[in-house]
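Protein 1 of 2
SEQ + STRUCT:
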Amino acid sequence: MPSTKVQMHMQYFLALVIIVIIIICALWINTFQPRWLLPLKNMNASASISKLDPGNGEVSSSSPLNTTRVVRRKWSVLLVYTGFFGQQEWFRITEDCKSPQLNGSCSKDLFNVTYDKGRFLESDYVLFHGRDMPSTSHMRMIWKKKPSSQFWIYFLEESPRATPDTRPLNGMFDITMTYRVDSDIWQPYGSYVEIPLKDQKNVLQEDFSVGKTKLVSWMVSNCNPQLRKLFVHELQKYIAVDVFGSCSREFGQPKSCPKESCKDIIKKYKFYLSFENALCKDYITEKYWSHLGDENIVPVVMGGADYSKLAIPGSYINVLDFKTVKDLAEYLHYLDKNITAYNEYFKWRKRYRMGGDWSVLCQFCKKGSSLTGLQLKHNQDLSDFWVRQGKCDEKDQLVRKMWTAHSSVVYLLILMTLILITILVIALIIIYYTQIYKVT
């Protein structure tokens, strides 16, 4: 009989220990969020590459391999091989480059842009959009026919997290054209230049807070990235944030911002959350650049880029400049009450203006109209450049700590308490069974 009781008590004991271990593990995961739990899609948004029907003009299977061409013309043929999110004739060079640095020497006539795949072998450059890539088998087929003097361009404005798997493309591309500063051809979402001193005008003593009756706005339609949503949920504990777009329902406020009147709605706010959907190296999108106009609003940015080097100085508030989300909210409240401090964020307009010579044509011409002098990364490892060097996970934890760091002590105390309780329970059970065995 005692042995049966011992077995029953042992079962209770084991069940209790398992429950305590599960609770401890759950709290640990919630607190520290180990990297191995992150979804694999963060590294590659898709495990396969979308297919594109090559259509008429496909490269003939009888074409000679690695044909070396002797080019005797003064202009270059640029074949646009893919569409752009389904749009076919999307890439054009319509005017000469207006960069003063090139002294008018960069003419649109230097390039003959074509969409005719039948001109593949005569093309100097072949441009592919990373989100509209042909199938892997098709890419391998035309790769075998690529003339040795031909350059392939990988063009993309999306982040690595929203990019099809680049591994099948390793060794195929010679030129990268992306928002990354270290691309062969830099193609940012926006840029700025310093206004010459002689053209700088005194900024009017305008109060940019006039007419602004609300504090923080955010427009979001891509509901998948969780980090920025968690951040906003935390921010709403300390300051009012009005959310617009298809994701607004997740915040209990189904608000819309019609295209024709959205700018007038945004004008009523002092701050706008320019939060990127991925915190990747150099990734600053229109979420920042498009809100520097006559809305007279201060962008609050969150991204993986070095804003001090790529964004307009004095035009933004970076969430990573604050220790906690609460600190950020308190600073926004401070600016709301201090008109002088708020207006400091508009003084950049005296010294800088948006724009520059970052057109595709200017970028080509800066490298040399035929790119012959450019040290290209022939057969480069695209995955290494785009995914590993893209560093999309580097700053995620820094952002998470802005609202989890202050609760870590609480979680630690809870864990320590659970451990002590477990030890106490084990000790009591041992004492109990010791007494039972003495009796038996």
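Protein 2 of 2
SEQ + STRUCT:
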Amino acid sequence: MDKRTHEEQLGFLRTLRRERAAAFRREIVPYFRYVFQSGFGLFASAILFAALIGYSDLIRAVPDHWPAREVGVVVLSLAALRAPLRTYMRPADPVFLMAMENRVAGRYVNEALRRATVAGVLRTLAASALYAPIYIRSPQTSELADNHPVVLLAVFLALLAAHNVYGGWRERRLASRGWRLGLKAVRTLLTALSVAALLLYPMPAGVAFAALCAALLNLLWRLPAQHALPWERLIEEEAATRRKWMGFLSWFVDVPSESAKPAYRRWIAWTGDWIPWSRRWAWHFLYAKVFLRGETFGALWRWVVVTCLVMAVSGSALADAIALGVSAVVCGLQLSELKRVRFVETVDTLPLSPQEKLKAAAAVARAAGLLAVLTIGAAGLATAKLGAAPEGADPSAWLRPDYGLAALAFGLFWCGWWMPRSIARHRDEDDE
């Protein structure tokens, strides 16, 4: 192949990715007008202002017993670990681009890796900047901060984030799913240990330990067989990203639906078998199984876990109440996805009443929403004093039953009545 043809192919791949990214933006950006018209912008702004006020109060006087070390390790580890990769791959690409596989792996994917690395570094630097005032002023970490220049610490954390982006790419290339999951778990553990070493131990020792962990991961990534370019993996990830965007936008406006990929989830899918095996409960069974094995359940339980962690470290009754109320709203919106479930055409041949479909969807959403709200409320009660002021201080900062009961009542009302009622309401477009 002559040099001119080579340059033409590289230019084609560079233009292809740029055009696909622009097409994706043109597809989703117009829907955000409806998102902001729904009041979500004001709601998000209120949450942001409340978070800024809470953050300002926290850095002004960090309580003695506030878990600054644990929070720093968790937050900075999560910031450094996240390594999404947008390639905009499509199912037909292996057919039309296979002849240029080496150049796709080079020019096309390297551009995506570069953007992902920049995003990961900036995200970690932002998290470091937010944590630095706490690290300096907290009684638990102030002495450590004296020997840890925050700028130098942020640089090493940014390098750790860049290494995780590269590690995510190496793991995507692995041929064995078992190796991929195992090495991802090892990378998660070593990243958390590296962040802890950088924050809590002398700087030279922490840097040496982080470098040793990175070298170990580089060695482990060489052991299993790997693809030159994991076409199917990249296509699946791109499809999952599109489903998440469309799922979020569908809370506010009707958007073209993306085909969902079911998950096994043997640890929870069996609970759907509790539903009686009879014609009366058939729609309930179908919706329960779709929910438990679909992406809505994954988003729901991840949100519940994050809310529980936030409440565990907040140390404020008002912050806990706000977190519970916001989480209840988000859970209800996520569960509204059940109304948009579309079964295969052959389901119409079953001897089941179509008028019962939305009622069954509402019942499943009600059960899941109430369980989520009660789980968050129980977690908030169990961890009420975990991030609170020292013993003997005014308990009104962390123990306010009126705040908690009001937030819990709102959550039960929203997820137990309002959203199920909205799901069960029939509209003309539901027949389409």
